[in-house]
Predict the 3D structure of the following.
Amino acid sequence: QPRPMCVSAIFVLDLQGKVILCRNYRGDVPLSAADKFVERVVEEEESQVKPVFTEGGITYTYIKHTNLYFLAFTTRNANAAMVLMFLYRLVETFQTYFNKLEEESIRDNFVIVYELMDEMMDFGYPQSCDSQVLQTTIRSNRLGPASQQKRGPQAPPTGIISWRQEGIRYKQNQVFLDVIEQVNLLVSSTGTPLYSEIVGSLVMNCELSGMPDLKLGLNDKLVFEHMQMESAGPNPQLEQARQKAVDLEDVRFHQCVRLAKFDTDRTISFVPPDGKFELMSYRVSKATLKPLIWVENTVEKHAGSRVEFNVKLSSHFKPRSQANNVEVIIPVPPDCDSPDTECSIGSCVYAPERDALVWSIKQLQGGKQYLLKAQLGLPSVQNEEERMKRPPITVKFEIPYFTLSGIQVRYLKVLEEKLNYQSLPWVRYLTKSGDYQLRQADPEGTASGSMRMSGTPAPQSRGVGAMAQGVGSSSRHR
């Protein structure tokens, strides 16, 4: 039997521990209990305090968002994970209503905040936590009248499908699907990937009338394995498709997806909420994932107080693709001055507040190499420990119409039996950097007067022929 969630009260405090508002649902916790939280959390180092702790028979659960603490009290042995989940959902709902959630937005909207807290929880038990359902009964000025114009009479959110109300109408029925992948990569100074993964999400913007039923098909490896099991005999085409399919891990769906249907035949069928939402998220682990962008940095320390950086950037994705908004952050010794930079593409500036050179490239074509040369003045007195530090190089980028994992949308069908209209489905792909770092080698063992710091593999494996293999796609298509 799982432990139920029962919250006695919820407080919102500022960073100094001053109570901004509170909602006491059960009346079994004194308001002075917040003083214990201030003594335990605000006045102590944050790293030493756990998000859940018990004191005086009261369990404290809290999260921090911008300049606010969201604190929940309970006197029962409640499920701590569910309490944390509710607090995060409360923050997401406030962000939907106020866009930017901070102390001022709470103070300026006390009435709406209390209405939302009463609607989302009753006597300490969670109720409706979906912001789209809440918007049918509680409205704010920020949401505007436009969202009401596309709807008919508002129905109470008590039906079987709580995330979508009836009576929605659009002049043009269309649905947009964005497949977004984030690459997390850590490469050693010798070019060996130490950690690599792809975190993806399918974000849908639904502008459909009525109560549509959608079916989505992906090139999931288990789909083709299921089709092979149902086929009468060997099918070479299915086997070839299965080899090109993607093995998705840690798949998480929006509540609208029919999980029983997915478990049976891996079909993603659902009645979508209105507007923008995340349909699903997934993860793909690739032990042999190679960097899409490699950076090699050679440092030469001249006699006197000058240091020279020679940086070579290589784009190792297909020439038909291009990366946008590329930013290479190259750490430099602290307290440098007199920067002099020259690059073959883009622009480079010295950011003293970050102790780094920031090389910005608006568009980077695949299969290309570019150079950056920079000279900086060093301080006359240097800390030896600071001089020996070699922080990793960080790269940021976005590659449209490209998926590194190879995931593809096979079909997206829209069916509305009552209205029976034609819809326009659109699909777009995007790969972008997440935690993307290339470590640099220590300067030990290099010749005097110069030191070489590398963020790429040995020269024989750095050529353009060692491009990372990814599956590209055309532009947004029907």
User: Anything to note?
Assistant: The first strand starts at residue 9 and ends at 14. Residues 160 and 436 are 43 Å apart (CA to CA).
